[in-house]
Amino acid sequence: MSWVMLFFAGLLEVVWAYTMKLSGGFSKPIPSAITLIAMIGSVILLSYSMRTLPLGTAYTVWTGIGAVGAFIAGVIWLGEPLTTMRIMAALLIVSGLVLMKLSGSH
C-alpha cells in the first residue's frame, strides 16, 4: 500500500508543478488553489508512505515521478521542446528510480 500512496503522491506533485506554471506566479486563483491543494495532498501521501518505506527511497521516487511527470506534462500540454538530451535525462531519472526500488528491502 505504501508504494501505491507514493505513486499517487508523485502524481500530485506533477499536478502541482503543472498548475503552478498555469497560476502565473499565484496571480490566477483557480490554478493557485489547485496547486496548494495538490501540494498538501502530495506531502500527506508521501508522509504516509514513509511509515514503512525508507526515507531515501520514498523521497527519491517521489521527486523522480514529479520530475519526469512534469517533463512529460510540459512537452504535451505546454509545448516544451522534446530533444534527445531531455529524453536521455528523463531516462536516466527513470533508471535511477528503478535501481532505487530494486535496492530497497520493501
UniProtKB/TrEMBL annotation:
Coiled coil: none
Similarity-based family: Belongs to the drug/metabolite transporter (DMT) superfamily. Small multidrug resistance (SMR) (TC 2.A.7.1) family. Gdx/SugE subfamily.
Membrane-spanning parts: 33-50, 57-78, 84-102
SUPFAM superfamilies the UniProt entry points to: Multidrug resistance efflux transporter EmrE
Pfam families: Multi_Drug_Res (PF00893)
Protein name: Guanidinium exporter
Topology within the bilayer: Multi-pass membrane protein
InterPro entries tied to this protein: EmrE-like (IPR037185), Small_drug/metabolite_transptr (IPR000390), Small_multidrug_res (IPR045324)
Organism for this UniProt entry: Leeia speluncae
Localisation: Cell membrane
Keywords: Cell membrane, Membrane, Transmembrane, Transmembrane helix, Transport
